[in-house]
């Protein structure tokens, strides 16, 4: 027996067997009640931490899990001890809770409660989430409590530390001074006075050690002096633990720290900045977690100092740079006009050199000279264009118009471009018929107009050709340049001629260009008094049309000359042609030998559309020892960056396909390249341009022209910075990985793009699978668990839709098991990209979730059980509930009562044992032989358990929805519920038995076996829970034909109340016989009640009725008033003669009242169960019952009794027991006499008297007398003519409106035969005539005549 | 013991024979009542005679049956109590109500 109780309890079970139970208040286990044994079985079989206390001393039990998690060194000492001894140190906290549970039966719930346990040799700060539920003994009394607990210490403390680390990292401003940084970290540390009761931050400086920040204590506290600490050790970078004593600040605790931890504030590659002193929480051991937390905290402080110091250095540098920039701007604006001079001096000698055969024969030299020449020309062209423009702006452009043969001049210019155009595979068509008259032109300007238009056409045309045509009509000369190029988008057309406007993303041969070509053309055309228009179809080509008026009338006279100079095409065309030639294919990338010189060689990607620049950069970087890869546009650069992971990208801003800024944006958007540094090169000087570049995410910006030394220096700085940044990124990753909560970052679409190692620990999904776009792989399966899937989908909608929030969702581990995660998230802007991201953390709350689920399941089960009215009624509801809890397809319970087939119950109540599938029958039968209360889930999709049913062993089996796993939590819950169910079934069984006994007893002792005539009585036990009570009614026949009437109600329910009732009833009966006086009887009963425990406060109505007169003397001891309903429907309440309930001391004698019950009135006595309803005054119930009697005042009394009981019953049945007594005045007349004619006169006399009592008028009375006489005469004459000695009985009863008479004989009535017996036939006719209804029923045993007469009002 | 009934025969001031019944008439004494009726019939020698039922508290069909043979030369004096029965029996046309006393 003993072993049974502790079986399945593991180590604890074994240790429990050796406890000296005899010495405890529970006694030896053999004597324990079933309820205790069940509770202990549940406790021991659960893998969830639990303990319980039972009995007067609250004897302590616990299971393996509790021992492991919570009990510590108190094991095994604690087993069998009083709980207040086991948990003496926290009894002030938990004692009142336990008392509350035992007093009220209400379970408690505490989440994360702080308790100071002494289980590890010191007082320890611990947190617990637990519920105390009541435990009941076999009688249902509260005798103990069960605690289901999960220890939260790690979680609470981890969260607290996390919060501090998170706050330390949450500095909203970018950088700040060292002082501000320390103040900020101090403020954060000061918010966690539990882990850091005090901190002191010291910095090393030139003067030695100084206190920089203190939290939790004033800076002038004696301990704060640097002298007291082992500075040398921390200066070497070691952490030191220092014991403390004396009067110290205690932080959030009531006792100060006994130890401090000194941690150096480490500096990258240098001696520490200083050190942090952390006063330690004395209620926690300095374990790895605690030490790690303090070290991470110090790391934050160090990082803050490093950041502040580096910011100050950068600040200084930025100020120096700004000063430099200002000087440079002034310088350039001053010297721009000086460009031309040195250019001239470059180009002149250069062209000289190019003519020297001795030099140009050397191909290498020739190539270098060509490069110089080309770029010199280009520079000159740009400078000229700028100068032109500034002149135009200033109005200083001097035009000189002369008559020109437009066709000829234009054709000549076009021919210069022919070779460049044809080398690209395009055609050039020149259609310039001679015009009738010359056009006044400035030749230099015209040249620029035509060359710009042709150059433009070539640049944007990739197939087809260019056509130039000249026409004249109606005094206007027209020149058109038409190409079959890319065309201009319609929305760009209005801005085509705006200066510096360039069409973005247009496909072109080169992205070089200043954006001033067309603007200049327009200015020049307008200077000629002409117009220029453009007509373009995007993707098909563009036509520029220049219209010039013929003649000179429209031109200022002073600018017109008539001299005709036929000058050839000037050298001004050269730069255009040279430039165009460089766009043509076939320019190879030169590659020299590597000359490694850089200290830290890097791989550099160069992107520039200008081949010369590309070559130059390649050579330069190569010469510095870097590995270089060069590409011609931004798109190629992006592809190369993704493939090659260069250390640095050097890119031009202006490039075809993808420009520099777009390249940077694309790089930053891709996690693979987001960290690659980019150095932008641009010819666009000025602060706006550089800001634009940096804002796009470029790391550095260099303006052309630049010196090779500057470029190399910037390249080196950026490479080193990138390497440093990677170091920071690694540190950040390490920090995030150290979090005890799972960490994730989502993009705006909900795709998870970053996670930490805890994330992987909890969910099983690692960084290798990133990014995880929704639907995430840890979502519950949509088919198998649509509810869970929806929950997660809702959570995702919240995650991407709100700025912050929290949710708890079911998720699936990679290996398939189910978890519950509580997550919280915040939307933030990614500091790198500026885009919205969602940063979230979550933790595994599976245990808590199941604890809550368990609690609610237990509650639901208890409710089901308490609602059950019987043992057989309890199971289907319970099975349905279990089925819903596990989403089971079917739940079966088989009760094996004996050798025969078991009784089977299923949730849907459809299946019987013999119709059950054989497979299920086998499974249930096998289950029967398993140990009690031990869950079995060997087969997938099926789980079962056995428990004790009052009729035998019950096997409970769940058919789970397809492939649903049955987890450890499910097992614990099933065991717990099965234990509860077993107890509950036993309780119902006991209640059933008690109720049956009590009801039998109640019926046995209730009321007289023979009621006097005219009475009807009812008794009903309470329906839910089925209970008999202490209500009774009684009638006592007294002297002089009087009748004592008693209705009473003892306090309480059950067998006990029924017993008291029986005694009170007998006493009252005896007293009435003796006193025949209601008030005296009640007074005597008071004395009796004082002797009888449980009789106090019983209420009694006691009356003595004279049925002859209807006189009623009555007294009421606190009983609800009797109700009298008159024949005409009027109602009286017998509310006089009132005094207090039995045994309640009263000042005077009990009063007595008199009442005369009118003829045919109905008297109703009852107990409060008939009329008392919740949330309704008693008077309402009394009114209702009075109405019910009024309604039925013409109904026979027995039927009326049934009607009243039925109509007053609440829908769910009476919740209190009810006794009811009805009497109608006068009682019925019942008379039996010998079937002899001489007996008729006395019969009539008796009937006449009774009719008078009924208040019947003389005419009606005479009619009744005659009809009754005829019926009796018939009975005598016919029924008994041949059988003398027979008897006849008469019964007469009155209702409010009718008289009912029944004449019964034992003879054989003859059918009326008027011919044979004329006067007998007349008798029958008389009956019919006088009565409202006559019935004759003849049978073998005799004849019954029923007469009914309506009573006139 | 029979139901109490007394029958006395006398003469009305106008000379008619009067049979005065007092008590109740039911099957137990209907024969006596019939005999008294026959006596009164004989005495009136074919002339109409009077039966005074004023002091009869009850009469049933047996009593009525005794009256029917004489119905052609009979007059009844009745009280309100008996009138419903007499009316039903079709004797109301020979019945007069007793003067209020």
UniProtKB/TrEMBL annotation, chain A:
PROSITE patterns: HIS_KIN (PS50109), PAS (PS50112), RESPONSE_REGULATORY (PS50110). Its EC number is 2.7.13.3. It is an enzyme of class 2 (transferase). The keyword Phosphoprotein applies. The keyword Iron-sulfur does not apply. Transmembrane segments: none annotated. This is histidine kinase. It comes from Paractinoplanes aksuensis.
UniProtKB/TrEMBL annotation, chain B:
Pfam families: STAS. InterPro entries: STAS_dom, STAS_dom_sf. Gene3D superfamilies: STAS domain (3.30.750.24). Residues 14-101 form the STAS domain. SUPFAM superfamilies: SpoIIaa-like. This is STAS domain-containing protein. It comes from Paractinoplanes aksuensis.
């Amino acid at each position: 027996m003993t072993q049974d109780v502790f079986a399945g309890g593991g180590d604890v079970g074994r240790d429990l067997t050796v406890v000296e139970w005899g010495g405890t208040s529970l006694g030896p286990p053999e004597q324990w009640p079933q309820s205790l044994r069940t509770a202990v079985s549940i406790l021991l079989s659960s893998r969830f931490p639990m303990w319980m206390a039972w009995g007067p001393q609250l004897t302590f039990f616990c299971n393996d899990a509790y021992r492991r998690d919570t009990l510590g060194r108190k094991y095994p000492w604690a087993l069998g001890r009083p709980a207040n001894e086991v948990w003496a140190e926290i009894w002030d906290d938990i004692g009142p809770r336990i008392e509350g549970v035992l007093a009220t039966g209400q379970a408690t719930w505490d989440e994360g409660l702080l308790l100071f346990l002494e289980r590890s040799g010191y007082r320890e700060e611990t947190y617990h989430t637990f519920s105390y539920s009541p435990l009941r003994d076999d009688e249902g009394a509260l005798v103990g409590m069960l605690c289901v607990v999960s220890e939260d210490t790690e979680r609470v403390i981890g969260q607290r530390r996390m919060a501090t680390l998170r706050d330390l990292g949450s500095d909203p401003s970018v950088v700040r001074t060292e002082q501000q940084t320390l103040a900020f970290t101090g403020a954060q540390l000061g918010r966690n006075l539990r882990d850091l009761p005090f901190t002191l931050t010291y910095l090393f400086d030139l003067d030695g050690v100084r206190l920089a920040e203190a939290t939790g204590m004033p800076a002038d506290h004696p301990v704060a002096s640097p002298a007291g600490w082992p500075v040398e050790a921390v200066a070497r970078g070691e952490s030191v633990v220092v014991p403390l004593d004396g009067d110290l600040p205690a932080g959030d605790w009531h006792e100060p720290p006994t130890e401090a931890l000194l941690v150096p504030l480490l500096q990258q590659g240098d001696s520490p900045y200083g050190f942090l002193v952390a006063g330690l929480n004395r209620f926690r051991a300095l374990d790895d977690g605690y030490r790690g937390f303090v070290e991470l905290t110090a790391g934050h402080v160090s990082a803050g100092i490093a950041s502040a110091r580096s910011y100050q250095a950068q600040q200084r540098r930025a100020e120096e740079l700004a000063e430099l920039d200002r000087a440079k701007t002034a310088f350039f604006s001053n010297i721009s006009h000086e460009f031309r001079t040195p250019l001239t001096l470059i180009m002149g000698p250069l062209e000289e050199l190019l003519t020297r055969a001795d030099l140009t024969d050397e191909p290498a030299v020739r190539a270098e000279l060509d490069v110089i020449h080309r770029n010199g020309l280009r520079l000159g062209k740009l400078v000229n264009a700028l100068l032109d423009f500034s002149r135009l702006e200033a109005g200083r452009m001097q035009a000189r118009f002369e008559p020109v043969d437009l066709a000829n001049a234009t054709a000549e210019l076009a021919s210069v471009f022919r070779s460049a155009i044809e080398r690209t595979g395009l055609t050039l068509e020149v259609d310039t018929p001679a015009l009738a008259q010359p056009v006044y032109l400035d030749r230099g300007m015209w040249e620029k107009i035509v060359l710009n238009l042709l150059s433009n056409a070539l640049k944007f045309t990739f197939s087809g050709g260019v056509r130039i045509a000249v026409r004249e009509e109606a005094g206007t000369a027209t020149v058109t340049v038409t190409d079959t190029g890319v065309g201009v988008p319609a929305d760009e057309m209005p801005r085509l001629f705006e200066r510096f406007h360039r069409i973005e993303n247009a496909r072109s041969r080169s992205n070089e260009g200043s954006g001033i070509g067309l603007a200049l053309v327009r200015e020049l055309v307008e200077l000629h008094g002409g117009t220029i228009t453009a007509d373009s179809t995007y993707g098909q080509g563009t036509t520029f049309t220049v219209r010039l008026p013929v003649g000179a009338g429209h031109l200022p006279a002073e600018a017109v000359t008539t001299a005709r100079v036929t000058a050839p095409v000037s050298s001004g065309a050269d730069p255009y042609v040279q430039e165009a030639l460089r766009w043509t294919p076939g320019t190879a990338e030169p590659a020299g030998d590597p000359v490694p010189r850089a200290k830290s060689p890097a791989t550099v990607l160069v992107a520039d559309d200008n081949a010369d620049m590309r070559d130059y950069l390649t050579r330069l970087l190569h010469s510095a020892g870097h590995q270089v890869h060069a590409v011609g546009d931004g798109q190629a650069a992006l592809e190369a960056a993704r493939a090659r992971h260069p250390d640095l990208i050097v890119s031009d801003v202006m490039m075809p396909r993808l420009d520099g800024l777009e390249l940077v944006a694309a790089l930053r958007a891709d996690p693979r390249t987001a960290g690659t540094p980019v150095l932008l090169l641009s010819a666009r000087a000025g602060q706006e341009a550089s800001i634009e570049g940096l804002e796009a995410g470029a790391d550095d910006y260099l303006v052309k022209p630049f010196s090779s030394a500057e470029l190399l220096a910037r390249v080196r700085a950026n490479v080193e910075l990138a390497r440093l940044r990677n170091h920071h990124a690694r540190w950040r990753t390490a920090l995030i990985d150290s979090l005890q909560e799972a960490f994730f970052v989502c993009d705006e679409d909900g795709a998870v793009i970053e996670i930490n190692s805890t994330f992987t620990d909890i969910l099983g999904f690692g960084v290798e699978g990133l990014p995880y776009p929704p639907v995430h792989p840890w979502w519950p399966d949509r088919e198998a668990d649509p509810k869970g899937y929806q929950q997660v989908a809702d959570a995702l909608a919240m995650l991407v839709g709100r700025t912050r929030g929290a949710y708890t969702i079911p998720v699936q581990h990679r290996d398939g098991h189910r978890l519950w995660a509580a997550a919280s998230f915040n939307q933030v802007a990614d500091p790198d990209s500026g885009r919205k991201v969602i940063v979230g953390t979550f933790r595994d709350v599976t245990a808590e979730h199941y604890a809550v689920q368990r609690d609610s399941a237990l509650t639901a089960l208890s409710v089901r059980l308490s609602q059950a009215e019987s043992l057989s009624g309890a199971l289907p509801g319970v099975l349905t509930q279990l089925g819903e809890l596990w989403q089971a397809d079917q739940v079966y319970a088989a009760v094996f009562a004996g050798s025969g087939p078991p009784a089977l119950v299923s949730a849907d109540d459809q299946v019987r044992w013999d119709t059950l599938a054989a497979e299920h029958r086998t499974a249930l039968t096998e289950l029967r032989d398993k140990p009690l209360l031990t869950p079995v889930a060997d087969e997938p999709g099926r789980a079962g358990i056995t428990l004790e049913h009052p009729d035998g062993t019950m096997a409970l089996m769940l058919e789970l929805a397809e492939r649903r796993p049955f987890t450890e939590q499910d097992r614990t819950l099933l065991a717990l519920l099965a234990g509860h169910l077993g107890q509950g079934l036993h309780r119902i069984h006991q209640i059933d038995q008690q109720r049956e006994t009590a009801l039998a007893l109640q019926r046995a002792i209730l009321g007289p076996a023979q009621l006097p005539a005219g009475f009807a009585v009812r008794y009903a036990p309470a329906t839910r829970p089925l209970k008999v009570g202490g209500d009774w009614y009684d009638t006592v026949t007294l002297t002089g034909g009087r009748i004592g009437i008693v209705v009473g109600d003892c306090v309480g329910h059950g067998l006990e109340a029924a017993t008291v009732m029986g005694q009170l009833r007998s006493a009252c009966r005896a007293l009435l016989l003796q006193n025949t006086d209601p008030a005296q009887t009640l007074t005597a009963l008071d004395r009796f009640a004082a002797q009888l425990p449980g009789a106090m406060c019983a209420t009694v109505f006691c009356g003595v009725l004279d049925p002859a007169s209807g006189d009623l003397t009555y007294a009421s001891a606190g009983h609800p008033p009797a109700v009298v309903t008159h024949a005409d429907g009027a109602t009286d309440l017998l509310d006089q003669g009132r005094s207090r309930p039995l045994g309640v001391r009263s000042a005077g004698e009990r009063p007595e009242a008199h009442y005369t019950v009118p003829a045919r009135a109905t008297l109703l006595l009852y107990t409060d169960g008939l009329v008392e309803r919740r949330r309704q005054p008693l008077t309402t119930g009394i009114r209702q019952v009075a109405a019910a009697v009024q309604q039925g005042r013409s109904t026979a009394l027995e039927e009326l009794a049934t009607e009243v009981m039925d109509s007053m019953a609440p829908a769910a049945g009476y919740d209190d027991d009810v006794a009811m007594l009805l009497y109608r005045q006068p009682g019925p007349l019942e008379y039996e006499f010998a079937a002899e004619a001489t007996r008729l006169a006395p019969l009539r006399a008796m009937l006449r008297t009774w009719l008078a009592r009924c208040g019947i008028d003389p005419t009606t009375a005479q009619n009744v007398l005659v009809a009754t006489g005829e019926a009796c005469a018939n009975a005598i004459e016919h029924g008994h003519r041949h059988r003398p000695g027979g008897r006849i009985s008469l019964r007469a009863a009155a209702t409010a409106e009718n008289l009912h008479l029944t004449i019964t004989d034992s003879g054989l009535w003859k059918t009326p035969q008027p011919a044979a017996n004329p006067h007998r036939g007349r008798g029958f006719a008389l009956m019919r005539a006088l009565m409202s209804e006559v019935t004759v029923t003849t049978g073998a045993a005799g004849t019954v005549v029923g007469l009914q007469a309506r009573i006139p009002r | 013991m029979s139901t109490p009934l007394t029958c006395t025969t006398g003469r009305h001031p106008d000379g008619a024979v009067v049979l005065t019944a007092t008590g109740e008439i039911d099957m137990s004494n209907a024969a006596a009542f019939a005999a008294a009726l026959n006596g009164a019939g004989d005495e009136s020698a074919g002339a109409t005679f009077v039966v005074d039922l004023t002091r009869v508290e009850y009469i049933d069909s047996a009593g009525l049956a005794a009256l029917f043979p004489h119905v052609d030369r009979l007059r009844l004096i009745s009280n309100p109590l008996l009138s419903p029965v007499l009316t039903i029996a079709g004797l109301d046309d020979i019945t007069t109500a007793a003067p209020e006393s």
